[in-house]
């Protein structure tokens, strides 16, 4: 039996309580069995969870489709997002749009905001954060964009932006954020927890951040 991780030969290592043969890999020191009854152990499960999260399925929907528990879906979502690194955008002199999108955390009385920046040509998300629309929260995102020496930064008329973005770079006029506003609609269509007029919303900030990380960069 070949190891599922390093593909070297493994040896028999006793049996499970249900009679399933277990194997042990001396190379990577992992213990495993040839087949698992619980579908969460299948190698393709993480890839399926990632795809379904991007296609508008909620946690309970994924649980029903893959026949695994809600808690397993949530824990796998955190694990997958932890392996994803933010986009390393290094091109200088580009044009960016920044906007905010509201959602809920915990209950529908607790409104939170997702603020993010996209590059106009590629429409790639270069940075985002989840939290209140305050100067302290928005500044790190603006600073990250400014490090790319942008030719223009387009925003809406939120009164925080003029104090954070140089006047020569900052652009605010009608329809200047059309691309990112359209991106907002796409997010609400593709991410169940952001859909308007639904019972679905994030129970915790970490799950919302994990879902966005998977959608933007996964």
TrEMBL record:
Keywords: DNA recombination, Transposition. Signal peptide: none annotated. It comes from Flavobacterium litorale. PANTHER family: INSERTION ELEMENT IS1 1 PROTEIN INSB-RELATED (PTHR33293). Pfam families: DDE_Tnp_IS1. The keyword Metal-binding does not apply. This is IS1 family transposase. It comes from the Bacteria. Belongs to the transposase 27 family. Absolutely required for transposition of IS1. The keyword Hydrolase does not apply.
């Amino acid at each position: 039996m070949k190891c599922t991780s390093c593909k070297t030969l493994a040896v028999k290592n006793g049996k499970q309580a249900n009679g399933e043969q277990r194997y042990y890999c001396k190379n990577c020191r992992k213990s495993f069995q040839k087949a698992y009854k619980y579908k969460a152990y299948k190698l393709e499960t993480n890839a399926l969870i990632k795809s379904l999260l991007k296609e508008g399925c909620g946690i309970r929907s994924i649980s029903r489709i893959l026949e695994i528990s809600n808690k397993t879906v949530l824990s796998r979502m955190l694990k997958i997002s932890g392996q994803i690194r933010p986009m390393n955008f290094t091109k200088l002199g580009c044009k960016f749009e920044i906007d905010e999108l509201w959602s809920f955390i915990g209950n529908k009385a607790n409104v939170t905001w997702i603020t993010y920046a996209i590059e106009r040509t590629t429409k790639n998300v270069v940075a985002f954060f989840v939290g209140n629309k305050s100067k302290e929260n928005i500044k790190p995102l603006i600073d990250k964009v400014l490090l790319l020496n942008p030719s223009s930064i387009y925003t809406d008329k939120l009164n925080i932006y003029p104090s954070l973005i140089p006047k020569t770079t900052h652009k605010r006029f009608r329809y200047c954020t059309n691309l990112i506003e359209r991106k907002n609609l796409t997010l609400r269509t593709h991410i169940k927890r952001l859909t308007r007029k639904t019972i679905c919303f994030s129970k915790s900030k970490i799950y919302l951040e994990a879902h966005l990380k998977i959608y933007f960069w996964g």
